[in-house]
Every structure is written in structure tokens, then in C-alpha cells.
Design brief:
single chain; about 500 residues; alpha/beta; about 20% strand; binds zinc ion
Length: about 500
């Protein structure tokens, strides 16, 4: 068995301000940087990402792998046409070379499934179709997908098997790469494509409602696994990325195997009704801070507020100020001096100012940015204040939580600033607050705080739920809509509801 492997990862928030160009893929940032050739197999073997899981399974089976392109960039607005076409062209060139040079028995792709480019609504479907055109109908193509994939009819038609994550926070990425490998084995054992059943939901699901650590998603995925066992199939439920203005945005359930029809119908019924199981409690910044302050008086453990609409994992730039304004206006820092913390705010200029001034200095800052959100609106004004520099850092952070998988992230010159008793972790580069180390690297001990504000939607829960007394979700103005109904959709079909 000789398997061609490649990857393309981007989650596109078409309402966000910044596009992903070629430089964004070269840097990778939250992802490994762009690589091409046999090096991707060596680099990702044993890594906790989908292709890592696929490579591990291939090693166990004795399959040989032909590495091509692996390209990923942080969530943002559209992928540029230039970047996508370069990635696709290199992949196709490598595939043609591999076929001429020893042949290709199967293809595995490590995809996200919610990319949109400047020129294509469904670039993953297009990529699969171009690969299919090269290998023909008989060579199996399988891929792993993110739980937030907006799965299209084209993707399902072109691939022999698509496997999606079953956790959010995503702690089963490598397992999903393995699952794609098992779909390949099932397809090979059968000698033809497995039967597939597909049902699309008719409402969008907010990211905040998708967390599989809470009801109802936890029980839904338990049901999915039970149905797999009962029907000897492979079911998938991709909940969709509800900020991509494309015709096929939304949740999809699909399954493979002889019992797929029955299993997909059963899971569809569990997800579709009752609709109100998916409804959300979203608070204004002021309401969230008021409630957090009153709860904090009754517990020793921190109350965590998710600043979800500035989530850098979904197109935010970690620079909006609505939550900080609310903390200052409601004097949270005066109530609990040095025990209220917000992170991570990306502001390279303020971080440089703090480094120039040194620890203990008072500096006058203009922190954060008013950024475009949607429908011509902008987020809150920067915070103008006098801040004390509490600590400095070079921004190298080794992650310790379940989402970080021991990786090291570089945030550039960083600082802890004290603004009227509120500690703000300020970095030069953006990151999602998905690991407690993103507070600790500037001297903030999250466990000792009364109130934490995290720039994240759901991923923070993996590392923060164990220490939190309560978790609230706030809607401060920012580029990622917590409620899809707030967005000015133009491409969704009229039959698609914006809320459950
Ligand atoms: Zn995701």
C-alpha cells in the first residue's frame, strides 16, 4: 500500500476583517508552518494532530506514505485565491509525480472542512474533485475533518470516507486521523464504496452551544458512538462553522456502512428535537461582570467569563476592549485588586512600551483596537489608562493543558499590566486563551484569581473548567458572532434558520 498524504487547514470566518494569504500559511502560527515533501511524514509522526494519527496507523499497518504539502493558517477571513491555488497546484504536481513514480493506492487528506477562498465557496470539495480527476474513480480517497466543518455535497461525493472530530474542545484530533485510516481499511475490505447516508440540519448552531463537555452535545456524541457499535458503521456529526456566508453552511450528519440510513436517522432525530436543547445564555459584558462579581463573593475558585466574540480561534485578533471597559466601569479591580485578570490581549505597541519602561514603571497606554465587526459596526474604543508594569516576558510559552499537547508557542515581547487592579496579559502576537500557561507566563496565577476573562469561545474549557467555579459567556463587540442571528447573511438558503 502506497498512500499519498497532504493537508490543508483553514477555518474561514467570512465576516472577519483579515484574510489568510500565502505568508499566513508559511508562518502557520497556531498550526505547524507550511512544509512540503517527505518531511511532513517525519515531522508529524506521533503528533497530536489528524495527520499524526493517520501516520501512526499507517506505521502499524506497514503502509508506505508519500508526503506532499501540509498547509494550515489561523482562522481568519477568506483564504486568498493566490494562496489556495498555490497549495492546490503543489499538491496536484506531487500527486502526478507519485503516480508516475511507483503509483498511488490511496489518498489521505488532513482537512478542516470550513475553508472559503476569495474565489471558491467550497475549496475542500474543489480540492477533492481535482485529486479525484487525477486518480480516477477506483483509488480510495479519505480525509479527516474538524467538528466545525461545513460539509458539502461535493466533499461527500468526491471522498470515499470523511471522518470528523467528536470533541470540542478538540482533544481527539489524532484519533480522527486514525478513524480516517479505518474508513480506508473498511473501503478496501469491501472492494467498493460503502453505502453512505446524509442528513443536513435546518438550523445553525452557535459555537458556544457546540461544546461536548456540556449538554446536549455530550449526550449526542455518546449516542453517536452507541449507534456506531449497534450498526457496525462510522457516523459523523460536524456541527458546522456558523460564520461562513456560503450556501452550505451548517450542521451535517453522515454515516457509512450497511446500517447507515437507520443510524443517521436516529442521530438526526436526537439532534433535531427538541430544538431548545441548543439554546444559549449569552450576556452583555456588563451583565456578565455584575454576575461574576456577585458569584465571586460566594466561592474561592475563579469565575471565568468567555470573551467569545474576540476568539482568535475563530477570526478575532485578540484586541477588542469591551470586556476590559466593563471590568473598569464596574470597578472589578477595586473590589478584588490584583485578583481580576484578562488575557491574552494582543497589542505589540503596548508590549514594547512596557518593555522600554521596565517592571514597576507607570505608563500611559492606549490598549487594544476598535475593529470592524459586521454590518458596518465597530468594536469598542481602545482603553486609555495609566498602567503599572507588573512583569515582562519574552513570550515563549510551553503549554501544559489538554489542548496544548506540550507545544511551545511564541507570543513575542509580552507583559502583565495592572490597570486599576485589573491584571491584563498583553502579548505581541495573538493567541486563543486555551491554556492556563497563557496567564502564568506573565506572572498571573489563574487559580488564585477571583475573576478571569478569557479570549476564547470553548477551547478554554478543557484547561479552565477544572479550576472554575462558574463559566459565563459574554457578547462584547468583536468579529466572531456568538449568535449567528446577529450576522448579515446573504448566501444562506431561506430554509436555513439562524437559531435552533
Ligand atoms: Zn474546530
Amino acid at each position: 500500500m502506497r498512500i499519498f498524504v497532504a493537508g490543508f487547514q483553514h477555518e474561514t470566518n467570512t465576516f472577519a476583517p483579515t484574510k489568510a494569504d500565502w505568508a499566513a500559511f508559511e508562518a502557520g502560527s497556531g498550526f505547524p508552518p507550511y512544509r512540503r515533501g517527505p518531511v511532513i511524514v517525519e515531522a508529524y509522526r506521533g503528533r497530536g494532530i489528524p495527520i499524526g494519527g493517520f501516520i501512526d496507523l499507517a506505521d502499524e499497518r506497514g503502509w508506505s506514505l508519500v508526503g506532499s504539502v501540509w498547509a494550515g493558517a489561523n482562522p481568519s477571513a477568506h483564504v486568498t485565491e493566490d494562496a489556495f491555488e498555490r497549495i492546490a497546484r503543489e499538491m496536484i504536481e506531487d500527486l502526478q509525480a507519485a503516480r508516475a513514480n511507483g503509483g498511488v493506492d490511496a489518498v489521505y487528506l488532513d482537512l478542516h472542512g470550513a475553508a472559503v477562498t476569495e474565489h471558491l465557496e467550497d475549496p475542500e470539495g474543489e480540492l477533492l474533485a481535482r485529486i479525484r480527476a487525477v486518480v480516477g474513480p477506483e483509488v480510495p480517497i479519505v480525509a479527516s475533518l474538524d467538528l466545525h466543518a461545513n460539509v458539502t455535497a461535493q466533499m461527500l461525493a468526491q471522498a470515499d470516507g470523511l471522518a470528523a472530530y467528536r470533541t470540542y474542545p478538540h482533544v481527539d484530533m489524532a484519533d480522527t486521523g486514525r478513524l480516517a485510516g479505518r474508513l480506508l481499511e473498511r473501503r478496501l475490505a469491501r472492494g467498493e464504496r460503502e453505502p453512505i447516508a446524509i442528513r443536513r440540519l435546518s438550523f445553525l448552531l452557535s459555537l458556544n452551544a457546540q461544546c461536548t463537555m456540556m449538554a446536549p452535545a455530550d449526550a449526542v456524541y455518546d449516542e453517536l458512538k452507541a449507534l456506531d457499535t449497534r450498526h457496525d458503521g462510522v457516523l459523523n456529526f460536524a456541527m458546522g462553522f456558523p460564520a461562513a456566508d456560503i450556501a452550505e453552511c451548517g450542521p451535517v450528519i453522515w454515516g457509512y456502512g450497511d446500517g447507515a440510513e437507520v443510524a443517521v436517522d436516529a442521530l438526526f432525530a436526537r439532534v433535531d428535537q427538541p430544538r431548545d436543547q441548543w439554546r444559549l445564555d449569552l450576556r452583555s459584558p456588563e451583565a456578565a461582570v455584575r454576575e461574576a462579581l456577585s458569584v465571586a463573593a460566594t466561592t474561592d475558585r475563579p469565575v471565568v467569563i468567555a470573551d467569545t466574540q474576540d476568539n482568535p480561534g475563530a477570526g478575532g485578533d485578540a484586541n477588542t476592549t469591551g470586556m476590559l471597559h466593563a471590568l473598569l466601569a464596574l470597578e472589578a479591580g477595586a473590589r478584588y485588586p490584583g485578583k481580576v485578570a484578562l488575557g491574552v490581549m494582543a497589542d505589540a505597541e503596548v508590549a514594547a512600551q512596557a518593555h522600554a519602561a521596565g517592571v514597576g514603571a507607570s505608563i500611559d497606554i492606549t490598549l487594544g483596537e476598535s475593529v470592524p465587526t459586521w454590518g458596518g459596526q465597530f468594536s469598542d474604543a481602545p482603553v486609555k489608562a495609566t498602567a503599572i508594569v507588573r512583569q515582562l516576558s519574552d513570550g515563549k510559552v510551553t503549554l501544559k493543558g489538554p489542548m496544548g499537547m506540550g507545544g511551545t508557542v511564541t507570543l513575542g515581547p509580552s507583559a502583565c499590566l495592572d490597570i486599576q487592579g485589573v491584571l491584563v496579559a498583553v502579548s505581541s502576537l495573538k493567541t486563543q486563551m486555551l491554556d492556563r500557561e497563557f496567564f502564568r507566563f506573565v506572572g498571573i496565577e489563574p487559580e488564585q484569581m477571583k475573576l478571569l476573562v478569557n479570549k476564547s469561545s470553548v477551547h478554554f474549557r478543557a484547561d479552565f473548567a477544572p479550576i472554575a467555579s462558574h463559566i459565563l459567556v459574554a457578547k462584547a463587540a468583536g468579529p466572531m458572532a456568538a449568535d449567528p442571528a446577529d450576522l448579515p447573511w446573504t448566501r444562506l438558503p431561506a430554509t436555513m434558520a439562524l437559531r435552533p
